[in-house]
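Q: I'm writing up a methods section and want to include an example of the input and output format. Could you take the sequence below and give the corresponding predicted structure tokens, formatted cleanly so I can copy it straight into the document?
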Amino acid sequence: MMEWGDENIRCVFNSLERSLPLYIETIGYSAWERIFARPDGYPYYHWLHTLSGEGSFEIWGGERFSLTAGKGILVTPFTPHSYSPISDRWSTVYITFGGVAAPAILDTLDMNTSALYTETSERVSFADIVGNMIHKADRDPEFSGLESSTELYHLLMLMRKFGMRNDQPSLSHFYEKLRPVVQWMENNCSAHVGLPEIVEQAQMSVSYLNELFRDAFGMSPYSFLIQLRLREAKKIMVTNPSMALKEVSVLAGFNDVSHFVATFRKKEGITPAKYRELHLSAQAVE
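A: Here is the clean output for your methods example:
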């Protein structure tokens, strides 16, 4: 748990960092958050997180949010907005960031929209993560470049996994529901099981199981099973370089070698034989 004082902290990163795919523009702590109105928005992504007290955040032409402790808002660039304290004292931490890859990263995480995030895990504190970054930036001039970019990416991943967005369940909520069936699939992916066996093991309807898998992994249960089998096939080919592909396909859980080769090529972009060849070549170089 970070301890905060009565003095504001604001760290501005230099322009050299802006050649990175993902970079921090500013990071800081506001002991007494003020009133801001930005009719043209802010030119970077803006994360504002409440430590204590309460504030009101309004996206112009959209929603108004109450930001109490444990809640934060991610605002996309040039989104008109305003915010102000509701309680006598409203303390926040914030990050503004950008980068040529920032939109693509947030698109991949399904986070490229302005939204409210609420912490849902007792083990993960967004405020402490940002606080540690502020501490490093304030005291260590070397905290810049790749290190700050890596920590920012880590924060975004945790927000996606443990943040309840606009009162919708977090990804960790879906993971917990699916943990038993995913573990069963990992243990049985090599067996000749399919969707009926997965549904039976999960003890839920096909439609609900599909919904949970798509929310958690972005794919259907059967597609997830295929990914597990491909992972198993890669492991077998690497550890048994002389094994025939027909035998690999059986051990990995595929019905026949032609299905295995076609699926591998579709998902990986190369044939199993080429994958094994490339891997063996890489080992020889090492």
